[in-house]
């Protein structure tokens, strides 16, 4: 499995007890969707290695208590701070105006008057407000991703129609 075929799920944060149990922090709004996972990919030495669960159960807000099959307590300790991934095909399909950030890379962004703004190069979600990174004729502009501004997501034509406040693009 290649990393580009997967999405980031979270990371292993610490040991729990002395039997090799681990705490996983899941980077999701709905950790309960992952309570029945059978396995996860752990990034180890630049490769994604599958690990199967002996058990998995909710622990606290956004966290899971797990034990991997055939992993000793000593081996479990070496997994702390490793990142977790799952294959993209395991994501539930979204419809309507909901989208995954990775899904819209390469879409064209249009404003409310159907004027092309530019191509979505990336989504920057490293700040409090996620941003579309747009290529506007070779110039990068940033547009906040605001749910109320998204009028339509057209997956077939790889386009997103947004309502942008007047003057926002000029600020870039």
Automatic annotation (TrEMBL):
Instruction: Give a single Pfam family match.
Output: RimM
Every copy of the RimM N-terminal domain together lies at 9-87
| Cellular component annotations (GO), alphabetically ordered | cytoplasm; ribosome
State the Gene Ontology terms under molecular function: ribosome binding
Subunit structure, interactors included: Binds ribosomal protein uS19.
UniProt similarity note: Belongs to the RimM family.
Q: What is known of its domains?
A: The PRC barrel domain binds ribosomal protein uS19.
Q: What is this protein called?
A: Ribosome maturation factor RimM
Source organism per UniProt: Moheibacter lacus
Q: What is the lineage of its organism?
A: Bacteria, Pseudomonadati, Bacteroidota, Flavobacteriia, Flavobacteriales
């Amino acid at each position: 499995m290649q990393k580009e075929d997967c999405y980031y799920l979270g990371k292993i944060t610490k040991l729990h007890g002395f039997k090799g149990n681990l705490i996983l922090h899941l980077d999701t709004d709905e950790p309960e969707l992952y309570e029945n996972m059978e396995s996860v990919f752990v990034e180890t030495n630049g490769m994604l290695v599958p690990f199967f669960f002996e058990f998995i159960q909710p622990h606290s807000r956004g966290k899971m208590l797990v034990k991997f099959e055939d992993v000793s307590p000593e081996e479990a300790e070496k997994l702390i701070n490793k990142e977790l991934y799952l294959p993209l095909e395991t994501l539930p399909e979204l419809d309507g105006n909901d989208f995954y950030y990775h899904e819209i890379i390469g879409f064209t962004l249009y404003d409310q008057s159907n004027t092309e703004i530019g191509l979505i190069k990336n989504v920057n979600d490293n700040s409090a407000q996620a941003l579309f990174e747009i290529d506007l004729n070779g110039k990068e502009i940033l547009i906040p991703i605001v749910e109320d501004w998204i009028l339509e997501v057209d997956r077939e034509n790889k386009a997103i129609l947004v309502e942008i406040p007047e003057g926002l693009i000029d600020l870039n």
